[in-house]
Amino acid sequence: MSDKDFGEKLIDAKAVIFYLADIFQKLNLLNKALQGKDSDLISSKSAVVSFVKKLELYLHNLGRREFSQFPNLKAIAGILKDEDILAYVSHLKQVIEDMKERFCDLLNLDIPCWILDPFGVPAVEVHPEIQELIELQSDVIARHAFGQFGRGFWINDDLLNKFPTLWGKVEQFLIAFPSTYLVECAFSKVVSLTKTRNRMDAAAIGDLRLSLTRLKPDIMKLAKAHAERLH
């Protein structure tokens, strides 16, 4: 192999690495968006739909040698050959197809509008069995809570008791695990506990639940209650 041929192979390899670096940076952002204790089916669907649409934009731009979404490739745009671009375009098409297949359940998930905006959707347009929405929309306290907490206001004991039918519909979207993140956190916590304790009592002492919950303890209230018991 001549020095020229060897040099061209090095350039090709560098271009591939730069392209993959740009793609994996975007995949890492998606992965981060799907994780966390506050993640649910609604936020996960938004993240995946947005990512697939971005990939389609990247595909369009890359095909006409527009590298604004690929900063690493942009740095070596002058040495990229047409066959390189075709290879990257082909790969992006495959990534889009794989994403649509992998997340087809999320992409096809139908989220009722009244869950996202319970006070902006006309109650007459929803299914008759959830006409509790009329009562909810008339509840000024609930309206204020929605303005303050967003859809997080659904996770409330008062709402669960006052509007059980609504909660039964909302529950599946807010409680279900959208990814393996919480499962992995639970396994990690169990491994940690078994290393520091003589027996498996993680469930009994509540450590496992505390490590997975999105609820923040009211330290001052707990301390006050504990102090009152001591007296």
Automatic annotation (TrEMBL):
Domain of life of the source: Eukaryota
Protein's name in the database: HAT C-terminal dimerisation domain-containing protein
Taxonomic lineage: Eukaryota, Metazoa, Ecdysozoa, Nematoda, Enoplea
